[in-house]
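pls design
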C-alpha cells in the first residue's frame, strides 16, 4: 500500500481510537504515524495500542511509525476549598507553598523552583492563558500578584511562566519511568515536552541513545532563543502551537512556525506541525475554512507531517478528521504554486559528497522525468537528506533495518521498504528496480534514480548515483 502524497499524517490514539478495528480504519484513511500520549492513559493502555499497531503492520506489510509523547514538567496550581473561584481584575492574589486548599485570595503552587526564579514584573498565565497575573512581590515562600485579566479558576489548572527560564529538566521522574517503558516496548520516536535549552535534548540523548529518534517539541519562548542548536541536536522537531500560543502573542506564532520549518529544512530534520489543526472536528464532522487553511499553510510551508490530537484521540469524528486532512494535503500538493514554493525554499547543499549526490539526484530526476528516487540507507540519514531536497518524485527508501523503516514513516515523500543487505552496487541497482516495480512506483522501461554509499552500512557515505531502467537491470 502506498500513499499518493508527500506530507505525512500523525494521529493521536485515545478513547475514541483504541480498538483494533478503529486503528486499522485510521491507517486506511491515511495515518502514517500513531502517537501515544503519555499525559493520559495507563502503561497497560499504551501497551495494548502498541500491540495492535504492530499486528496491523504485519497485516498490511508496510512499516508504521509509533511516537511516544512524554508529558514533561507541566506546571499546575493546587486545589480550592470550593468548586471554583472568580478572580476579579485589579485584586491581589497570592501563590504560596502551603498545601492547604485555596480560596479567593490564595492557592498552593507546588513548584519551589518558580519561587527561586520569578522576579517582580513577570507575568503568570493560568488555565491556558485565560487568566493573567502580574507579579508585584516575591518572598521565599509566597508570590504576590495583581490580577490583570480575571475569570473563573478551579483545581489543578495549568500555569505558564512565559518570560522566565525555569531551572527544571524537560524530563520528570514520571517521564523517566514512562520512557523506560516505551523504549522497552520499542517505540520509534520519543517526543520531549517543554524543551527550553540544548541541555534538555542532551539529557534525553543520554537515556535514549540510538533506541529511538528524538523529537523536540518547541512550545517555550526560551527554546526559540536556542532554535538552531536544538534543531541540530534533535532528530526531528515538533511545532507544538498549544503552549507556544499561550506563552507568546498569537500574532507571533505563524511567523515562528515558518522560522522553525525553514530551520529544519536547512538542517535536514523532519518537522511536524501540531495542535488544534482541525480542532472543531472534535465535535463536528467538518472543519472550519480557517482550519482547512491552517493545515494547507503547513503543507505549503514544507512541513514533513501534520498532526491530529484530540480530533482522533477523544473526538466524535476521528476517521473523518484523518480523511479531510488527507484531502487537504493531496489538494495542496497538486497545486502548481506548491511546487514553486518548495523550489523557492530549497536550502543550499552543504559542501559534502553526500549532499552533492542527493542534490544531483533531485535535478537528474527532474531532467529525465524519473518515476522515483531510490535511496539505500541504514540509519535513515541518507533518506533525510534526499527528502530535504523536496524532489518532484517520490522517494523509495530501502533499508535492512525495520527500526529505520518505521522511523522514516514521518519523513516527507518517503515510502520505506525493508530488504536484506546487498553486497555490491550492481546488486543494489537490481534490488532498486525490483522493489520500485513491486511497490508500484515505476513500470517497465521507466527510469529511476538510485543513490547509495559504498562501502555499504557506513553512515553518511552516500557517494554513488545511477540512472536505472526498469526491466534492463533485472
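designed seq:
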Amino acid at each position: 500500500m502506498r500513499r499518493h502524497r508527500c506530507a505525512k499524517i500523525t494521529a493521536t490514539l485515545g478513547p475514541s481510537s483504541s480498538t483494533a478495528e478503529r486503528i486499522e480504519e485510521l491507517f486506511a484513511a491515511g495515518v502514517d504515524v500513531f502517537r501515544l500520549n503519555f499525559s493520559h492513559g495507563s502503561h497497560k493502555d499504551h501497551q495494548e495500542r502498541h500491540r495492535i499497531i504492530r499486528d496491523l503492520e504485519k497485516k498490511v506489510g508496510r512499516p508504521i511509525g509509533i511516537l511516544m509523547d512524554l508529558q514533561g514538567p507541566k506546571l499546575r496550581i493546587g486545589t480550592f476549598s470550593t468548586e471554583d473561584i472568580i478572580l476579579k481584575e485589579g485584586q491581589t492574589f497570592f501563590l504560596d507553598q502551603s498545601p492547604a486548599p485555596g480560596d479567593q485570595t490564595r492557592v498552593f503552587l507546588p513548584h519551589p523552583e518558580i519561587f527561586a526564579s520569578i522576579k517582580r514584573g513577570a507575568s503568570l498565565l493560568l488555565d491556558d492563558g485565560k487568566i493573567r497575573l502580574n507579579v508585584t512581590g516575591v518572598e521565599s515562600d509566597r508570590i504576590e500578584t495583581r490580577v490583570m485579566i480575571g475569570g473563573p479558576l478551579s483545581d489543578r489548572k495549568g500555569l505558564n511562566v512565559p518570560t522566565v527560564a525555569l531551572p527544571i529538566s524537560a524530563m520528570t521522574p514520571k517521564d523517566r519511568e514512562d520512557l523506560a517503558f516505551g523504549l522497552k516496548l520499542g517505540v520509534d520516536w520519543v517526543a520531549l515536552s517543554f524543551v527550553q535549552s540544548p541541555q534538555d535534548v542532551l539529557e534525553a540523548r543520554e537515556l535514549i541513545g540510538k533506541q529511538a529518534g528524538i523529537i523536540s517539541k518547541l512550545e517555550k519562548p526560551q527554546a526559540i532563543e536556542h532554535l538552531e542548536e536544538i534543531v541540530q541536536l534533535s532528530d526531528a522537531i515538533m511545532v507544538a502551537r498549544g503552549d507556544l500560543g499561550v506563552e507568546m502573542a498569537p500574532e507571533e506564532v505563524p511567523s515562528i512556525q515558518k522560522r522553525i520549518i525553514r530551520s529544519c529544512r536547512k538542517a535536514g530534520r523532519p518537522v511536524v506541525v501540531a495542535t488544534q489543526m482541525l480542532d472543531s472536528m472534535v465535535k463536528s464532522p467538518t472543519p472550519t475554512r480557517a482550519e482547512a487553511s491552517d493545515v494547507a499553510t503547513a503543507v505549503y510551508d514544507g512541513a514533513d507531517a501534520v498532526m491530529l490530537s484530540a480530533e482522533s484521540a477523544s473526538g466524535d469524528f476521528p476517521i473523518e478528521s484523518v480523511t479531510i486532512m488527507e484531502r487537504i494535503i493531496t489538494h495542496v500538493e497538486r497545486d502548481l504554486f506548491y511546487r514553486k514554493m518548495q523550489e523557492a525554499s530549497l536550502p543550499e547543499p552543504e559542501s559534502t559528497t553526500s549532499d552533492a549526490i542527493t542534490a544531483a539526484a533531485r535535478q537528474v530526476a527532474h531532467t529525465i522525468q524519473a518515476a522515483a528516487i531510490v535511496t539505500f540507507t541504514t540509519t535513515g540519514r541518507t533518506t533525510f537528506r534526499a527528502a530535504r531536497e523536496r524532489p518532484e518524485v517520490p522517494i523509495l527508501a530501502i533499508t535492512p533495518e525495520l527500526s529505520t523503516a518505521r522511523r522514516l514513516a514521518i519523513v516527507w515523500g518517503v515510502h520505506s521498504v525493508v530488504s536484506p543487505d546487498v553486497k555490491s552496487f550492481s546488486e543494489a541497482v537490481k534490488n532498486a528496480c525490483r522493489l520500485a516495480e513491486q511497490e508500484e512506483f515505476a513500470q517497465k522501461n521507466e527510469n529511476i534514480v538510485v543513490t547509495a554509499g559504498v562501502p555499504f552500512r557506513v553512515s553518511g557515505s552516500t557517494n554513488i548515483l545511477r540512472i536505472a531502467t526498469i526491466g534492463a537491470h533485472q
